[in-house]
Automatic annotation (TrEMBL):
Pfam families for this protein: RVT_3
Organism: Halobellus salinus
PROSITE patterns per UniProt: RNASE_H_1 (PS50879)
Domain RNase H type-1: 66-196
Annotated GO MF terms: nucleic acid binding; RNA-DNA hybrid ribonuclease activity
Name this polypeptide is given: Ribonuclease H
């Protein structure tokens, strides 16, 4: 579970400014609780613990804008194609892993899962306020479609490519590259963990 070393009053103000509703804590040592989409936050004396299926629904609101550059890794997988699908993604800076996640996303194809992972990773990067992203994934098809080197004939994939390009346009500079699976091993592992933990 990610933990943010932040005064509970400062954290509360940041969340309230973003329109997040604050509730009383469940026990004496909890200052307050908050939830947004798929994340929950609990404030203690000197930190805020964030948990849930997608902690980045709250983490960027608690941490100041990062600026700078991040390396973004993504991976999606479907067992059956179409079949049960899961995603994994990682945000890395010079200081190490900033955030990561994995999630089951229902039944879909492998390519749609890859796009879902890319979109979730870019949303997280945008939420943290990075200026630049270098995106890496082991799906050559998705990378080439996003770069405009391959056409996207499937309407569902075309819609996802548009969303990915919209998110990329929010950054001052971006790249997207195909990498071997072993370079993308953490995102791959997170997607597989999401399968195993379902």
């Amino acid at each position: 579970m990610p933990s943010v070393n932040l005064d509970p009053d400062v954290a509360r103000k940041r969340l309230e400014a973003a329109g997040v509703e604050i509730e009383p804590g469940n026990v004496d040592h909890e200052h307050w609780r908050a939830s947004r989409r798929h994340a929950n936050a609990v404030a203690y004396d000197d930190n805020v613990v964030v948990q849930g299926a997608n902690p980045t629904d709250l983490l960027p609101l608690l941490r100041p804008a990062a600026g700078g550059r991040a390396h973004v890794y993504f991976d999606g997988a479907s067992r059956g194609n179409p079949g049960p699908a899961a995603i994994g993604w990682v945000l890395v800076t010079d200081e190490g892993i900033v955030d990561e996640g994995g999630d089951r996303i229902g039944e879909t194809t492998n390519n749609r899962a890859e796009y879902a992972a890319l979109i979730r990773a870019l949303e997280a990067g945008d939420g943290y306020g990075f200026d630049e992203v270098d995106v890496r994934g082991d799906s050559e098809l998705i990378v080439r479609q996003v770069r405009g080197e391959y056409d996207t004939n499937n309407p569902a994939l075309r819609e996802r490519r548009v969303r990915a390009r919209e998110l990329l346009a929010r950054f001052d500079r971006w790249t997207i590259e195909h990498v071997p699976r072993e370079v993308n091993d953490r995102a791959d592992a997170l997607a597989n963990e999401a399968f195993d933990n379902a």
